Amino acid sequence: MLKILFLLLMSGGIPVAIAMAGSSLIYILISGNLPPFAVVHRMIGGIDSFPLLAVPFFILAGNLMNNAGITNRIYNYALALVGWLRGGLGHVNVVGSMVFAGMSGTAIADAAGLGTIEIKAMRDHGYSKEFAVGVTAASATVGPIIPPSLPFVIYAMMANVSVGALFLAGLLPGILLGLLMMVTVAFFAHRNKWGGDIKFSSTRFGKAIIETAVVAAWPLSMWWLVKDLGLPAQPTVIGGLVLLFAADRFFRFQAVLPIMTPVLLIGGMTAGIFTPTEGAIAASVWALFLGLFWYRTLNWRSFVKISLDSVETTATVMFIVAAASIFGWMLTATGVTAAISQWVLSVTQDPWMFLLMANLLMLFVGCFLEPTAAITILVPILVPIAKQLGIDLVHFGLIMVLNLMIGLLHPPMGMVLFVLARVAKLSVERTTMAILPWLVPLLVALVLLTYVPAISLWLPRMAGL
Fold first, then answer.
1. Greatest mean pLDDT range, 155-164, 293-302, 397-406, 421-430
2. Dihedral sign from CA coordinates of 191, 195, 196, 202
3. Please, what is the Cα angle at 165 between 163 and 169, to 5 degrees?
4. Dihedral, 385, 390, 392, 393 alpha carbons, nearest 10
5. 45-49-51 Cα angle (round to 5)
6. Could you tell me if 331 and 55 are in contact, meaning their C-beta atoms sit under 8 angstroms apart?
7. Pairwise CA distance, residues 356 & 291, whole Å
8. CA-CA distance, 241 to 226, in Å (whole number)?
């Protein structure tokens, strides 16, 4: 009955969070087994979690980066690095999204922030609107894969796994996704005989390479100084940051400091300097410092507006989590999750076959539910089966998030689809057709990441997480 009530409310156009909480309340009233106050009590308990404190700060950090002029810096950096390749702005789109993913943590922020700049630039250089929308949509899915990632935080809390392990697990898959999309851009460029969009400049390209090298060398040098030479961690890191800011001022780098966001976040968690929640606060402070004091692209009035927008987004996310917690609890209490688990295990006990079935289910669910709601519903159903079959829950979390990101590109509820349709001023039908070819690299990546777990688990295991 609970599932029927939920589907009836959803079919009536009621928002998914209200449908989950409402169906749970109606079921309790009809059954009479529990007092109605149990709904409120369970919803409050669902968000009374220390890891969830990271959610508002990651949202704030992403909004600060998105409104501090950082997107233009990332675009210019990516343009210098790959804009001279055939199909240049398509490659710029992918690289820019990979960099921006290390700050925003959501696909929608990527699509709305960088997407506006990228689609306009590609149209000005003669690319079709459909191609520009397709590559922007596909590259936006990298946002929650490369850390920080809001869906990873929600999954970690629900599945009781390490946020730091999930963040590390997303790095190599994020790079793999980017490479597969750049191969797709190269295919279209070869087929349509496109050239580069800027002339190759050794000076500009060299500076972009130096920026990339600085970002890669900084954490390695800190690790060597602290772990191998035994220098004290905090003074060494502070001294390294001072040198980094001095180099940024002297060489006038485009994107070194923004790209350092995930480096500092993951490095701090891996080294035990701060917890994921404290890391989210550190990311917000870093973004605030860059916007207000270093680049001076923010002012206190805009900071107040960004904070209010972050509060609104946080309230929406937390209400979805709260509603899903009571719905998930009711699914467990009424035996629905146990019944599904028994049915799946009666069909197959092969982990590979279960992963195939889980992928198909998550792709389907992702077409209808917002990722946060989908995670909070699917975790109580699928994670116990995955655990029983010996599937690593960090690996499974990555698979779940990638499936749900692909779902954001599909009608009827794909939020990235609707955002880009509005940005590009295309109909939803034309936007859907534009995105279809880009599902190929995404599905190839999904298959690889599903059945080659070493891609996602190598870094967490190296770090001992």
1. 397-406
2. positive
3. 115
4. 20
5. 155
6. no
7. 44
8. 14
